[in-house]
Fold:
Amino acid sequence: MMNAIDVHMLIRLIIAVVAAMAWVGINALVLVYCERKFAGHIQRRPGPFEVGPHGILQPLADGLKLMGKQLFRPAGADAFLFWLAPMLSLLPVLLLFLPIPYGPMLTAMNVSLGILLILAFSSLNVLALLLAGWSSNNKWGILGAARAVSQSVAYEIPLLLSVLAVTFMTGSFNLSAISTSQGAWPWQWNLMAQPLAFFIYLVSAFGETNRAPFDLAEAESELTAGFHTEYSSMGFGLFFMAEYAYMVVVCSVCTVLFLGGFRGPVADGWWWFLAKTYALLFLMIWVRWTYPRVRFDQLLNINWKWLLPLAVFNLLATAFVMKL
Amino acid sequence: MQTMAHVAFGVYAFIILAGAILAVASASLVRALVGLITTLLGVAGMYLLLASPFLAFMQLLIYVGAVSVMIFFAVMLTHAQTGGDESAPAPVRKFLLAAAGAAVPALVLGGLLYHRGVSGAAKPAVVGVEKLGTGLLGAYVLPFELISVILMVAMCAAVLLVWEKRGKRK
Structure:
């Protein structure tokens, strides 16, 4: 017999997953608009301007256009894997939002291993990109997939090491506990104690989310669109939404780990969380439209020759200082 | 709790078996890999059911996220043709033999457990990450370090192999 607690948990989980879906959708719309508008202003042009006041309805129009297009599968592609890949890219994202503490009480599930849950399920994305590239039966696709994987696998290591440095300090994998262990004011945040880890996390986050200047996997000048060359309509739409969702997750985790999460001056709450997350997201957009794309050997050299040794050094130093 | 656990066990067992069958029966190597990954996911679910979420997440992070990606890479690098010897449909006799081979241990073990079952604990013991950590660095420090040495040797060997190839090319 199912008792009341189980039913309660189940209902909570369902609500959380539905809320995560809505949150992913809203964020995709807002971020697409912001990205295009930012890109426009950075390049001294107005950006989208026609649909709605200041082009504010442009993402909706884009979405409708995307949905209206034909779903197309190239001949010789592995149909099962071809359609599995975009779903595999988006589905784990819905779980990633569960352990994130948006406010003191606003957590879908207070998981004691929250950060590990996020890291574990986000690793499925690499697999989705590989499947997409391979099953499209297209050389751009497979080259993009190969790049995406060697990049993601490489950048995951410094990312994990910088996260570990913070969990060393807090002694917990629980994101709520990590948030509350930090003070309200900026100088009480983990950013002050772990500036190097913050920097490493941020750079690795660009690598992990395949964002410029590290967007080698979909470098349009060389690979058309990389792993999603052959995807049209919502097949591409799902990858696109997953990419923006991963950006939000990465920035949310960064907020929790380094910027105090929902803690903030005057009053703690989700407003601080959202403000910090969106500040980081704008930083990501800003960087994308400021720096040119790096070369692939440069990309891997940055990781293996700089970030990885620095992250290991930072971890050892943290452990040493903690033991003192 | 009991019914939920039973349903979850059934679902995970189904996922594991379906993945295994997909891995064995599919002609394409990449599809077989997807089957393997499905099985690994199911095993992670089993760990979750046994109240060890740490192991479950590590299973996902290491096996699904890293090892299977490496296998995928190997498949791509070897440029496996889809028309290999093994990709031809197997005769029915082979399928029957394979099914019988799989059924024997299942029947023997299942029968043994059914007739002489041991009563397990009502609920799985919860072992926290702290306890795991102190265990690995306390009582089991020697095997733990030995594993890291083995991994180190494997990594050095891999680097050395690549080194040699580069030298020959010059």
Remarks:
- The interface with chain A takes residues 1-4, 28, 30-31, 34, 37, 53-54, 56-58, 60-61, 64-66, 68-69, 72-73, 76, 128-129 of chain B (CB under 8 Å).
- The CA atoms of residues 19 and 38 of chain B lie 5 Å apart.
- The first helix of chain B runs from residue 2 to 25.
